[in-house]
Amino acid sequence: EVHLVESGGALVQAGGSLNLSCAASGFSFDDYHIGWFRQAPGKEPEGVSCVSNGHGSTYYVQSVRGRFTISRDNAKNTVYLRMNGLTPEDSAVYFCAATGVPYYCANYGMVVNLREYEYRGQGTQVTVSS
Predict the structure, then answer these.
(1) Is the CB of residue 16 less than 8 Å from the CB of residue 128?
(2) Nearest to 96 by CA among 50, 45, 52, 35
(3) What is the rounded distance in angstroms from the CA atom of residue 92 to the CA atom of residue 88?
(4) Distance between CA 45 and CA 78 in Å, rounded?
(5) For residues 51 and 30, what is the distance between their CA atoms, to the nearest angstrom?
(6) Handedness of CA 64, 22, 35, 126 (dihedral sign)
(7) CB-based contacts of 56: which residues, under 8 Å, 6+ apart?
């Protein structure tokens, strides 16, 4: 059975930092690109960042570039998202999703249509107070 389990969300003050984790099981983790998405109330999901399989190329949406860092540990089947300089606009449910389709994550972009991702987690709440 496939699982993607996110953790690390919390309530923090603006300017603070959080480390999110996405722990995977039940599929060949090394072969999959992993994306982090977020969804704020009343808004569509937004692709935030991704890390590819293989060489581990990374991509960040413009609004988080320079503040967020994605990484993966294939030995632990886990992807991390380090978030610095948080603002209230970063408040959302953050979730990870996995796709095995080639080129869906690269340093120039990521596929943001969640229908293209085979697996996704339930999410973890990030709330940033002003």
Answers:
(1) yes
(2) 35
(3) 9
(4) 22
(5) 11
(6) negative
(7) 71, 72
CA-based Rg of the chain, rounded to a whole angstrom?
13
Q: Which residues are 129's β-sheet partners?
A: 13
Write down the residue that tokens 């984790």 correspond to: 21
- In whole angstroms, give the CA distance from residue 9 to residue 93: 8
Amino acid present at 40: A
Encode the chain (130 residues) as per-residue pLDDT tens digits.
999 999 999 999 999 999 999 999 999 999 999 999 999 999 999 999 999 998 899 999 999 999 999 999 999 999 999 999 999 999 999 999 999 998 899 999 999 999 999 999 999 999 999 9
C-alpha separations of 39 from 30, 58, 81, 107, 123 in Å = 26, 20, 15, 22, 9
Could you give the C-alpha distances from 12 to 15, 18, 48, 53, 126, in angstroms and in order? Answer: 8, 8, 19, 31, 8
Any idea which residue has 């994306």 for tokens?
35
